[in-house]
Amino acid sequence: MIQQLIQNIKKTKAPVCVGLDPMLSYIPEYILQASFKTFGETLEGAADAIWNFNKEIIDYTWELVPCVKPQIAMYEQFGTWGLLAYEKTVRYCQEKGLLVIGDAKRGDIGSTSAAYATAHLGKVMVGNALCTAFNTDFLTVNPYLGTDGVKPFVDVCKAEDKGLFVLVKTSNPSSGEFQDKTFEGRPLYELVAEKVVEWGRDCMDGSYSNVGAVVGATYPEMSAVLRKQMPHTYFLVPGYGAQGATAKDLKPCFNEDGLGAIINSSRGIIAAYKQEKYAKFGPEHFAEASRQAVLDMAADIGSVL
User: 2-300 — its CATH code?
Assistant: First the structure.
């Protein structure tokens, strides 16, 4: 699966991932009102507005980027209607040729972890039929429970040629409360990185593993250490733009071949029309603003690679 991502990156010349993390406050009023007119101010109405918002952004950006990353929590808050919008978004992106990283940060043990892996990456037997549920291409995974929690996901990846991005060093300000604590003279995130490399050895797809790592751009010094420690691990990199990281901060995440990282931006792209830089587009042309934000981001990253 990671080779498909690399091929898409080379084709688009943009290591950019669009984070489809919609909030109702991001959605132009005319879209909200159209959905509310049909379904009322209900969970179904909110989910319909999210789907219509997503679809237009996808239509304007799909040929510019290799992948998207919907954050499932933004859909779950609207219950089953929201999950239907999530599923519809995943399917539509894949129809456009985009790879989909399901951002669910799942992690448990035993049969529970296996069920999560099946739901998001694998197949489930229903009577005599083999069915898929969300069927994303990649999934984010929380490694806090150790190998017991991650192995079921790795097993499904091997069986289905899917991919993972395991949390290693995240971009949020309080990540250091646990991730930076030292054990035997080394920070915890380095020990997690070692396990990610170990888990990924049986999942190689060319020169990179299908087991990748989430490494935040907001800590470039740590990114540089992890890049050396994990030369065959692809990084999913949050933190660019709205969270404060710059293109210069991204450079340590990449290998010398210009590969090794895919950079996510969520509100910086999908809510671009709300920024002063893109205000000229207005709410009516929000998706065109998102398209321009993708182009600008790709150029910005390209300037440091």
Answer: 3.20.20.70
Tell how strand 186-187 and strand 124-126 pair up: unpaired
For 205, the 3-state DSSP assignment is: strand
Give kind and range of the element (H or E) at residue 88. Answer: helix 79-95
Cα angle vertex 211, ends 206, 214, to 5°? 125
Residue with tokens 């539509």: 92
How does pLDDT run across 220-243, given as a tens digit for each residue? 999 999 999 999 999 999 989 877
Helices 29-39, 43-61: crossing angle, 10 deg rounding:
140
Q: In the annotation, is 105 catalytic?
A: yes
pLDDT tens digits along 39-70: 999 999 999 999 999 999 999 999 999 999 99
3-state secondary structure of 8: helix
Do 271 and 24 meet the contact criterion of CB atoms below 8 Å apart? no
Among 105, 162, 251, 277, the active-site one is: 105
Positive or negative CA dihedral for 95, 18, 101, 70?
negative
- Non-local (6+) Cβ contacts of 158 within 8 A are 202, 203, 210
Measured distance CA(203)–CA(161) in Å, rounded: 9
